[in-house]
Design goal:
heterodimer, A: alpha+beta, PH-domain like, 2 domains, 3-stranded antiparallel sheet, 4 helices, 7 strands, B: alpha/beta, 6-stranded mixed sheet, 30% helix, 34% strand, globular
């Protein structure tokens, strides 16, 4: 029995996006304030904006984008942000494919009677080609009659 | 086996050991004839390329599954069944083996199907034998064995 393996790498691009979103909101708020009020403490406001954008950006990233993936011989769990985790058994699936999106991100797709579940291999910083072979192996073992 | 860096389709999903009925394809890749890219590439593709789903199937041959008329027909039917599921307009079936006999060559050349192009890649002589139909000839044109 394989030990449970867990992957939850930080997605720097999405973290940066969250940071920029939070910084922009604050910057717009500062811009619409009277300049006489803001100008004398410009550097202090800028420093506070950076710190607040860092904290809120991290919070936003964890709420919306952070992916946690764990798996063992029996099945896997995948959760994104604060959404409830999606759990499946490998034996539920009959076909495995490796798909590339138009942004050159790889996903391992699992098919079962018309339903498709996607594991975002690139976002999890897994080698998509090796991971696909590993998933095929897990699905085959889980579907074999002796398992 | 590589192409000649000639764009054929945007193949974006691949299956290994893909089963269709009782036929097992060692490789099946699916794609679309409309390319992706930045604004100009997209516009060019939108104006000039048809929006077709297409596929490529490969079977590695050995002594046990050497092609004959009946077997080839079965493989083509399996390809067509898969094409129907994926709403594909056309597909290629590549058989990869070594030193095909004259009967096998004849069988490949006579594979006449308008939507499935068939070819045999002979790994020993590095030659590609294709069906006389249009898609088969195109496959031969694109594939070179190194």
């Amino acid at each position: 029995m394989r030990m449970e393996q867990k992957r939850s790498p930080i997605q720097l691009y999405n973290l940066f996006k969250s940071f920029v979103a939070m910084f922009t909101i604050q910057a717009v708020m500062v811009l619409i304030m009277p300049s006489g009020l803001v100008a004398p403490i410009w550097y202090q406001i800028f420093a506070v904006n950076l710190i607040v954008a860092g904290v809120l950006g991290w919070y936003l990233y964890k709420q919306w984008y952070h992916i946690v993936f764990s798996y063992d011989d029996a099945g896997f769990k995948l959760s994104k942000g604060k959404n409830p985790p999606m759990a499946h058994q490998w034996s539920e699936f009959s076909k495995v494919s490796l798909a590339r999106s138009e942004y050159n991100e790889f996903k391992v797709k699992l098919y079962s009677n018309g339903d498709v579940v996607e594991i975002p291999a690139s976002k999890l910083k897994l080698d998509p080609f090796k991971f696909r072979l590993q998933v095929i192996d897990l699905v085959t073992k889980a579907s074999s009659p002796g398992s | 086996m590589t192409g000649q860096a000639r764009w054929v389709a945007d193949f974006n999903e691949s299956f290994l050991d893909y089963r269709e009925g009782d036929v097992k394809f060692d490789l099946f890749i699916a794609g679309n004839t409309r390319s992706k890219g930045f604004i100009l590439s997209r516009l060019f593709s939108f104006l000039l390329n048809p929006n077709y789903e297409v596929g490529f199937f490969a079977i590695s041959l050995d002594e046990e599954n050497e092609p004959n008329d009946r077997r080839l027909r079965k493989w083509i039917l399996a390809v067509k069944s898969c094409m129907q599921k994926h709403e594909m307009k056309w597909a290629w079936l590549m058989l990869v083996g070594q030193s095909p006999s004259e009967s096998v060559k004849k069988c490949i050349k006579e594979a006449q199907d308008r939507t499935v192009g068939v070819a045999y890649a002979d790994a020993s002589s590095r030659q590609v034998i294709s069906a006389d139909a249009y898609l088969g000839r195109q496959l031969k044109k694109y594939v070179k064995i190194k």
